[in-house]
Amino acid sequence: MRMRIVLTVAAVLLVAAASASAAPIEHEGRISDVFAFRSYDGGATPRVTLILCADPLEESGEGPGWRPFDPEVLYEIKIDNDEDTVADIVFRFRFATEQRLPNILTAYFGAGAGVVAPANSPAPVPPGTLIVPPKIASFSSPGLGQRQAYTVTMIKGGVATPITGVGPFFAVPPNAGPRTVDYDALFAAAINTTTLPSVRVFAGNVDDPSFGDRGAFFDTLNTPTNAYILSPVEDAQLANGPSDTLSGFAVNAIAIEVPVSLITRTGAVEAASSPAATIGVWGSTARPRLTVRRAPLPPQSAGAFSQVDRRGNPLTSELLIGTAFKQRFALDQPKNDAQFSAFFLDPLLARTFNAVTAGALAIPTPPRVDLLPLLTYAPPIAAPGTVPGPVADLLRLNTGVAPTAPASASRLGLLGGDPAGYPNGRRLFDDVFDVALRLVAGGVLAGPPFSTSGINSRLGDGVNVNDAPYRTTFPYLASAPSGRNRRHIDPGEPGCTAGVGASCLP
Fold it and tell me: Which residues lie closer than 8 Å to 312 by C-beta, 6 or more apart?
């Protein structure tokens, strides 16, 4: 009886705290970004790459245990392919952590060919005893003290199908540094083909693929670029003026590449003009509902899983949803997003730009029906005649639009004349911050050619590229910063773009 009373009181306090909080419930289950795009690394089979990033702002040098994937979290990428904003296909990732060197002071331990005890080693360790294992170069290396394996399950039509490979799927560990780990060798080994044709999977610690001058934005538009109005030169350059707030940080990422025919409702590759071509994508994380703290024993969790975060379009929670509603937004399902329509259809962000520019930046009159292509299945993303479905924050991708080769791609996606980019899905290099500002404040989706004249068409933060180069093949993600040599590029420092070039604007 006493235990029952304690748990009841704790539950009441938890509910009260959740209802009053504007922050995510916890860090490990926080989703930072979701990506969905047609794969552009060749091959005869049209494919889609889906990526979920979680637990952002990781320091590669933080040690000793870093921040691995949480074994208690369900990481899921969900697809709606019939416009009802309910998941028709789910790709579920679960992780298990193995402590292979429980007595070693750090999770990753290695150097060269190994380091042995010297001639004057005190007893009882004799000279020649291996003290430091060799540099970690594979998932079987003895210095890989903390090793994470994972499983992938596809849930389709209510049927759960394990996605397996030749051997276990291992996640790439953090890049502790060049003495300890051959990070690129582990990255290559972590790209797994599977038993499903044309399906590949990947998981690991990588460079945070998002980029932007978030620090200036959240200092109430304290930006050197004249309230986010770029000059034509600033808008055109593939370089950064201000610094990338996320430079030098890592994130945990899961990725899966699947044939288009696996995820459309018809089981075929539909033309871009087909109402069956467009899917809605979002990611979610969930935890067991009950966790008992048992110090000094580890916590023990039980019960059904409950959602702790979700993500569809980039920046929706950050830039549109009011602070007192952010947690409710994270915990609820997309099918219930009509409750947030006031934030979507009369965004305060647009009114802020209108105010700080003293009216020079004109905004559309609400309700903002020009934003409905981001919230429903509508042109210019979905084909004409597609059922709009309910208002919901999903990342919508027309799978019939062919991928654009990187050399011809625009960082502004659809707004830059590149139909394969955001808001038609989202690629890693899409400058979603600039695009989102123009969509929300500029009214560019009111009609073709999906651009505006004057300053509305030049909104941006001046950070146009990531600080690390993306790969050009699956999983496309960049290597995590080295824990030993990572660099956060700060305002006023020399070398704003990938550590080279002119000084960043203060």
Answer: 34, 280, 281, 282, 283, 334, 392, 393, 394, 395
The Cα 455–Cα 438 span in angstroms is 10
217 membership: H or E segment, kind and range: helix 214-217
Q: How many other C-beta atoms are found inside a 10 Å radius of the C-beta of residue 389?
A: 22
- For residues 436 and 212, the answer to whether their CB atoms sit within 8 Å is no
- Report the SS3 class of residue 368: coil
Report domain extents, the chain: 28-108+144-458, 109-143
Q: Which helix (H) or strand (E) holds 146?
A: strand 146-156
The verdict on whether omega for the bond into residue 296 sits within 30 degrees of 0, i.e. cis, is yes
Element counts in the chain: helices (H) and strands (E)? 11, 15
Q: How many CA atoms, within 13 angstroms, populate the side-chain half-sphere of residue 164?
A: 6
The pLDDT tens digits of the residues spanning 408-445 come to: 999 999 999 999 999 999 999 999 999 998 998 877 87
SS3 184: helix
Q: Which long-range contacts (CB under 8 A, 24 or more apart) does 266-270 make?
A: 269/46, 269/399, 269/400, 270/399, 270/400
Q: What is the largest CA-CA distance in the chain?
A: 80
Tens-place pLDDT, residues 75-100: 999 999 999 999 999 999 999 999 99
Rounded CA separation 456/438 (Å): 6
Are 162 and 151 a contacting pair, CB within 8 Å? yes
